């Protein structure tokens, strides 16, 4: 049996924090997991900036609601779901992801959660579990699934390494250089062909 695991931001939807940075003019928020491999350090940095600039959850969700998935993402995802169990594994937060999930057809998403006070200030973040992408792939493998995984950033590389087959999708040059063991795909057609080919190599039929 085969399962598909995909990252969310950079693979199916634009980077949320980059959009927040562009819409608010706060360039410090351009930094993402493509640049910083330490997620806790990155989030502490982000929340410090939000506090300094008095940015609340409503400001961010209004920006996210105006965003759209990448062209072709919904159709790509629906095609995968029609053939194999497909999971979105993301280091985003449920409060951020909800508008995007509706636009993607409500796929299965595993992510984290924010702690928000009564004023809308983001106080903290709650990690579902450390390294949850890797652990989800390992749990699927223990259930006798082969796993094909695709992601684009530092925080995806443990997931790709633990999968039966891991693929980078439109990663930045620094990630390509540091992880040359993973093949690189640049559009959904190419990625679908790679998944179908890998599925056949793993003995999967659909």
Topology summary:
Elements: E1 2-6, H1 16-24, H2 39-53, H3 57-65, H4 73-81, E2 86-93, H5 94-103, E3 108-116, E4 122-126, H6 132-142, E5 146-151, H7 157-162, E6 165-169, H8 173-178, E7 184-185, H9 188-201
Parallel strand pairs: 1-2, 1-5, 2-3, 5-6, 6-7
Antiparallel strand pairs: 3-4
Helix pairs in contact: 3-5
General description of the model:
With 206 residues, the chain is an alpha/beta fold. It has a single domain, classed as 3-Layer(aba) Sandwich (Rossmann fold). Strand 5, helix 7 and strand 6 form a beta-alpha-beta unit. Helix 3 packs parallel to helix 5. The radius of gyration is 17 Å and the shape is globular. The chain starts with a strand and ends in a 5-residue tail after the last helix. The mean pLDDT is 93.
Give a count of the beta strands, DSSP E runs of length 2 or more: 7
What is the count of DSSP helices, taking H or I runs of 4+ residues? 9
CATH class: Alpha Beta
| Overall 3D shape | globular
What's the domain count? Answer: 1
Q: Summarize the biggest pleated sheet.
A: 7 strands, mixed
Q: What's the alpha carbon Rg, rounded to whole Å?
A: 17 Å
According to CATH, the fold-level topology is Rossmann fold
What is the element string, with H for helices and E for strands? EHHHHEHEEHEHEHEH
Briefly note the structural class of the backbone.
Answer: alpha/beta
- The amount of helix comes to 40-55%
Neighbour order of strands in the largest sheet? 4-3-2-1-5-6-7
The fraction of residues in strands falls at: 15-25%
